C-alpha cells in the first residue's frame, strides 16, 4: 500500500492537468475556428470548454474522494494501473465511446455512422442523447445510491459525522439487504410517478443498475480475496479496479448528458470534460499521497452524502429538469461543510491535548 507523504508540493500533483488544460483549450479554440471560421466562434467554443471542465470538476469532486478511499487500500501496482489505464477509460471511454454507444443503440446505426452523425448533424445527435436520459439516470442513480448506502449501512463503521442518523444506519446494517430494500422501494415510488413506457423503462434500467452494483461487488470480492487464483501483485487490486471504473462511469452519466445543454458538439464536450477528468485524477492522487482522508475525518462522509444527493437528483431528473449547477454546488457544499467540521474537530482535539499537557505539567510541579 502507498504510504502517505506530504513532502511533494500541492501544485506538482496538477502538472499533467495543467498541461492537458493548455492543450485542450488550444484544441477547443481550433475546433471553434474550424466550425465557425470566426474569432467570435473560436472564443465561444474556447469558453464552453473551460466551463465544461469546471462543471466536470464540481460534479466529480466527491468521486475523487471516494476513489482515494478505495485506492489507499490497493496495491501500488493497481494504484498505478487505475491512474494510467483509468484515465484513458475515463476520458476516451466515457466522454467519447459512451455517448456514441448510446446513439448506436438508440438510433440502431453503426459506430461509424454515429461518429459522422455527431460531426455533421450535432443537433440530431444531441436529440438522441437527450431522449436516452431517462434510462441513463435510472441506471446511474441506482448504482450511486447503492454506493452511498453501503458506506453508511456498515455495522463496523465507528466514526460518525451526523451522529443521530449514522448511528441508526450502522445499527440497522445487521438487517441483511436493508439498503437493497430501500432502493427497491424508491424505484417503485418513482416508477409510479411516471406513466406507460417511461415507467417500464425506468424500472428495468434501475434494476440493471442494482444488478450491476451487486455483480461488481461479488466479482470484486471473489477476485480480491482469492489467494490461490491470483498473484501477490494482483491481490486486492483487480476487483477494486473494476469497481472504481464502474463508479467512474456512473459519476460521468450526469456530466455527459448535462454537457449537451452547453454544446451539441461531441468533440467540444469530450475536450471540456476530459480536462475536468484530469483534475479529478490529480486530486485523487494528492488525497492518497498526503493522507488527507485520515487528516480530515468527516471529508469522506461529506463525499458519500454528496453521492446520495446526486443519486436522488438523477432520479428526480426523470420527472423534472434540474440544472447541473445545482447538482455541482450541492455536492461541493456538502463536502465543504464536512471539511469545515473536520477542521473544527481537529482544532478541538489539539486544544484538549494542550489542556491535558498543562494539567500534567501542573501536577508534576
Describe this structure as you would to a colleague.
By secondary structure, this protein is an all-alpha fold. It has one domain (10-357). Helix content is 80%, strand content 0%. The chain is built from 14 helices and no strands. The chain has helices at residues 15-36, 39-71, 76-107, 111-120, 122-131, 133-152, 163-172, 178-193, 196-225, 238-259, 266-290, 292-295, 299-316, 324-364. Helix 2 (39-71) packs across helix 14, helix 3 (76-107) runs antiparallel to helix 11 (266-290) and helix 8 packs antiparallel against helix 9. The longest helix is centred in the last third of the chain and has 41 residues, at 324-364.
Q: Which key features would you list for this structure?
A:
365 residues, mainly alpha, disordered N terminus
Task: Write a brief caption for the model.
The protein is built from 14 helices and no strands. The protein is mostly helical.
Topology at a glance:
Elements (H helix, E strand, L loop, with lengths): L14 H22 L2 H33 L4 H32 L3 H10 L1 H10 L1 H20 L10 H10 L5 H16 L2 H30 L12 H22 L6 H25 L1 H4 L3 H18 L7 H41 L1
How many structural domains are formed by the residues?
A: 1
What is the H/E string?
HHHHHHHHHHHHHH
Largest sheet: none
Percent of residues in beta strands?
A: under 5%
Supply the helix-strand structural class: mainly alpha
* Mean pLDDT over the full residue set: 79
The percent of residues in helical segments reads over 70%
Distance between the termini: 45 Å
Number of E-state strands: 0
The gyration radius over C-alpha positions equals 22 Å
Oligomer category: single chain
Query: Could you list the spans in which at least 5 consecutive residues all have pLDDT below 50?
Result: 1-5, 227-235
Q: Write down the overall geometry.
A: globular
Figure out the total of helices: 14
Amino acid at each position: 500500500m502507498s504510504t502517505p507523504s506530504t513532502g511533494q508540493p500541492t501544485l506538482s500533483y496538477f502538472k499533467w492537468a495543467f498541461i492537458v488544460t493548455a492543450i485542450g483549450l488550444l484544441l477547443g479554440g481550433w475546433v471553434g475556428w474550424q466550425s465557425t471560421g470566426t474569432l467570435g466562434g473560436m472564443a465561444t467554443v474556447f469558453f464552453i470548454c473551460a466551463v465544461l471542465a469546471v462543471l466536470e470538476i464540481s460534479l466529480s469532486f466527491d468521486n475523487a474522494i471516494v476513489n482515494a478511499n478505495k485506492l489507499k487500500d490497493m496495491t501500488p501496482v493497481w494504484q498505478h494501473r487505475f491512474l494510467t489505464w483509468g484515465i484513458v477509460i475515463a476520458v476516451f471511454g466515457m466522454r467519447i465511446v459512451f455517448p456514441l454507444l448510446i446513439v448506436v443503440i438508440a438510433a440502431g446505426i453503426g459506430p461509424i455512422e454515429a461518429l459522422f452523425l455527431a460531426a455533421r448533424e450535432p443537433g440530431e445527435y444531441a436529440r438522441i442523447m437527450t431522449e436516452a436520459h431517462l434510462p441513463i439516470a435510472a441506471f446511474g442513480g441506482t448504482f450511486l445510491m447503492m454506493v452511498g448506502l453501503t458506506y453508511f449501512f456498515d455495522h463496523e463503521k465507528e466514526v460518525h459525522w451526523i451522529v443521530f442518523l449514522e448511528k441508526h444506519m450502522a445499527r440497522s446494517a445487521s438487517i441483511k439487504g436493508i439498503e437493497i430494500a430501500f432502493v427497491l422501494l424508491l424505484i417503485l415510488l418513482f416508477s409510479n410517478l411516471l406513466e406507460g413506457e417511461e415507467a417500464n423503462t425506468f424500472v428495468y434500467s434501475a434494476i440493471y443498475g442494482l444488478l450491476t452494483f451487486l455483480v461488481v461487488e461479488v466479482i470484486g470480492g471473489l477476485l480480491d480475496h482469492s489467494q490461490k487464483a491470483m498473484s501477490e501483485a494482483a491481490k486486492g487490486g483487480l476487483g477494486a479496479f473494476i469497481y472504481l471504473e464502474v463508479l467512474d462511469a456512473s459519476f460521468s452519466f450526469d456530466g455527459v448528458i448535462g454537457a449537451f445543454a452547453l454544446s451539441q458538439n461531441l468533440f467540444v464536450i469530450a475536450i471540456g470534460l476530459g480536462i475536468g477528468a484530469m483534475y479529478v485524477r490529480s486530486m485523487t492522487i494528492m488525497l492518497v499521497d498526503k493522507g488527507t482522508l485520515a487528516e480530515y475525518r468527516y471529508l469522506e462522509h461529506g463525499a458519500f452524502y454528496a453521492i446520495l444527493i446526486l443519486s436522488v437528483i438523477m432520479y428526480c431528473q426523470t420527472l423534472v429538469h434540474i440544472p447541473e449547477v445545482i447538482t455541482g454546488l450541492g455536492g461541493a457544499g456538502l463536502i465543504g461543510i464536512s471539511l469545515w467540521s473536520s477542521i473544527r474537530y481537529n482544532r478541538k482535539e489539539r486544544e484538549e491535548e494542550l489542556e491535558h499537557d498543562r494539567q500534567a505539567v501542573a501536577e508534576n510541579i
